[in-house]
Specification:
The structure holds two protein chains of two kinds.
Chain A: E1 2-7, E2 12-15, H1 35-44, E3 53-57, E4 62-65, E5 69-77, E6 81-82, E7 85-86, E8 92-95, E9 100-102, E10 108-116, E11 150-152, H2 158-161, E12 170-172, E13 188-193, H3 202-210, E14 213-215, E15 223-227, E16 242-243, E17 248-251, E18 257-260, E19 267-268, E20 272-276, H4 281-285, E21 292-297, H5 300-331
Parallel strand pairs in A: 13-21
Antiparallel strand pairs in A: 1-4, 1-11, 2-3, 3-10, 4-9, 5-8, 5-10, 6-7, 6-9, 8-12, 13-20, 14-15, 14-21, 15-18, 16-19, 17-18, 17-20
Chain B: E1 6-9, E2 14-18, H1 25-40, E3 46-51, E4 55-60, H2 62-69, H3 75-89, E5 101-106, H4 115-122, H5 126-135, E6 138-143, E7 150-153, E8 168-170, E9 174-178, E10 181-184, E11 189-191, E12 194-198, E13 219-225, H6 227-234
Helix pairs in contact in B: 1-3
The chains are: A alpha+beta, B alpha+beta.
Chain lengths: 332, 235
């Protein structure tokens, strides 16, 4: 039970929800950039949300399935195809042995997630499957996926193979997930004030709230650099280093901004003018270079409510997916 | 201990307890004591606890806290209150007399590309810089930036050179200075610190039982070794 990389992509890595608890060692949480899409990918194939998925950037790899496999693809839309036929995102799909999954064209989004029934069978490093590229540990040998890599699965999808119709390479199951409000208004990103927000000049606060910022091509899993008007503080006090988090918006010495993403370093000394709310990180993770961001200020109460609502929606989806898949087992 | 501190949200899933924008052993010890108290009194949803120079940051899952404790306030206020308790109740023990950790460093040509320029700008000989760097016993304030990167201080003010404007590639084991701080790069990385030498010790080994060798609160002193000794270590 496995899949094989027959052509490598730009950056395809095994990830899960990260390895919290090691920040004191300088080891960041890491994990998937879009936690919503990755969790839904696992739910669709009947997995626990903490199973490893493959995070795929465009241009993506080509994957050969060595057995009949129940898979799902969520997140960015790269025109996923099995052999010559397009397949839907956000659906469980039974794939026939020897079919090839590939991603010919970028439609929208920045990364997509591939989950397989049972999850990928790789060793954990510090309680997580996530690939830590700098440490060279976690995921598949601590590195991105390369040609010839064979990634084993924990479980077989044999129960689902009977759903394949003769002559068809795959069968998309009838149900899918509606992502609701998660990715609506993709360019409107909510933030709460950071500790150094008050140090911005009035003009800079106004510019931050009113102007648009563009995602710079030098953006990666560590951080999104933004292009926009230069922002200034009323006094340029040096800060001693302290912790930063996924979504922290830092003001760089040149007046430009960086938003820290999943692979951010654990500590930093740049002024924190704001923090993107957790419920909007999936949306942000799907923005691409040259996409525009409009920051909208909210407060901690609203940020918490939106995150809790998003989690409740995920809990409902998890139950619904489990019930649907269980009904298939019964029919067999 | 002053009572001047600030508690602020670091996003909606983390709180920082900040005791002042300074590099101070007393504040750092207090942050460690608070961390110790929190780990002894954990709560559902606690994900991580990070000590920095003069602050403690707690990372948490707001959804779990809401579910288990259902606070009437925001989850942030609930965690902030707990940090206040950690501050009030944690006892700042005298720093345990930890064993001094001695770290060999080769300061010879080819190992510390910034030693000569730093010496020239400080109007010292290279040997004097090495002596000043190895004479001091440093406190490890925090681990951050990279896996196992130790922030230590404070260096003798005569050699406290600010970091470079632009980061350059730095080799694993490199020992550098940035203002009053000194530290060791555990991995090859771009870096802006002034590199004086390199240690053959491996301070980060992902698959060792303890992947990171140094921890906040450790005491460290460097000693000079020759190129030959460095190579013997590495082989």
């Amino acid at each position: 039970m496995s899949l094989t990389i027959i052509k490598p992509g730009l950056l395809d890595t095994l990830q899960d929800l990260g390895r919290p608890g090691y920040g004191g060692l300088g080891i960041n949480r890491g994990g998937v950039m879009d936690r919503y899409a990755a969790q839904v990918a696992n739910m669709l194939v009947g997995n626990e949300v903490r199973e490893a998925v493959i995070e795929i950037h465009f241009p993506g790899a080509q994957f050969l399935f060595e057995q009949n496999t129940l898979i799902s693809i969520t997140g960015g839309h790269f025109n996923a195809m099995l052999n010559d036929e397009p397949i839907p995102l956000w659906h469980p799909i039974v794939v026939r042995k020897n079919a090839v999954l590939h991603f010919p064209k970028l439609q929208n989004g920045n990364r997509c997630y591939l989950a397989v029934h049972g999850g990928f069978c790789v060793p954990q490093w510090l309680n997580s499957y996530s690939t830590h590229l700098k440490a060279g540990a976690g995921g598949f040998h601590g590195r991105k996926l390369e040609k010839g890599d064979e990634i084993p699965f924990k479980e077989s999808s044999i129960y689902f193979a009977g759903l394949l119709k003769p002559g068809k390479e795959f069968e998309a199951l009838k149900w899918g997930v509606d992502t609701g409000s998660t990715y609506l208004h993709p360019n409107e990103i909510f933030f709460i004030e950071g500790n150094e927000w008050e140090q911005l000049t009035y003009q800079s606060q106004k510019a931050f709230l009113q102007d648009n910022f563009t995602v710079h091509p030098f953006s990666d899993r560590m951080g999104y650099q933004l292009k926009g008007v230069d922002l200034h503080r009323s006094a340029n006090t040096e800060l001693v280093s302290s912790a930063v988090s996924f979504g922290t918006i830092q003001l760089l010495p040149n007046g430009q901004l960086i938003v820290l993403m999943a692979d951010h370093q654990t500590t930093g000394g740049y002024p924190r003018i704001g923090h993107v709310i957790s419920a909007h990180l999936p949306k942000l993770a799907q923005l691409r270079p040259s996409d525009v961001i409009h920051f909208i200020k909210t407060d901690i109460t609203n940020a918490e409510q939106l995150l809790i609502a998003q989690q409740q929606e995920l809990n409902i989806l998890q139950r619904a997916c489990t019930e649907r898949l269980n009904s298939l087992y019964v029919k067999h | 201990m002053t009572n001047q501190y600030k508690i602020f949200p670091l996003g909606d899933s983390a709180v920082t307890f900040d005791m002042g924008n300074s590099i101070s052993e007393a504040l750092n010890q207090k942050a460690l004591a608070m961390q110790h108290w929190l780990l002894a009194n954990p709560f559902e949803g606690l994900k991580d606890c990070l000590v920095a120079y003069s602050s403690l940051t707690v990372l948490y899952n707001p959804v779990l806290i809401k579910k288990y404790y259902n606070p009437a306030t925001t989850v942030f206020t609930w965690v902030a209150d707990l940090l206040q308790q950690a501050f009030d109740k944690s006892v700042q023990t005298k720093p345990v007399a930890r064993e001094l950790i001695k770290i060999p460093v080769c300061y010879e040509a080819g190992y510390g590309p910034d030693l000569l320029p730093l010496a020239q700008s400080a109007r010292l000989t290279e040997q004097e810089v090495v002596t000043l760097h190895t004479d001091t016993i440093y406190n490890v304030y925090m681990i951050g930036f990279l896996p196992g990167f130790s922030y230590m201080g404070e260096v003798n003010e005569r050699i406290a050179m600010p970091r470079k404007q632009t980061p350059t590639p730095v080799m694993a084991g490199s020992v550098g200075i940035a203002g009053p701080q000194t530290g060791i790069y555990p991995l090859n990385s771009p870096g802006g610190w002034q590199i004086l030498g390199r240690t053959p010790l491996r301070l980060f080994d992902p698959f060792a039982p303890e992947p990171v060798k140094l921890q906040a609160g450790d005491r460290v002193q460097f000693y000079a070794i020759t190129k030959k000794e460095f190579e013997e270590y590495s082989s």
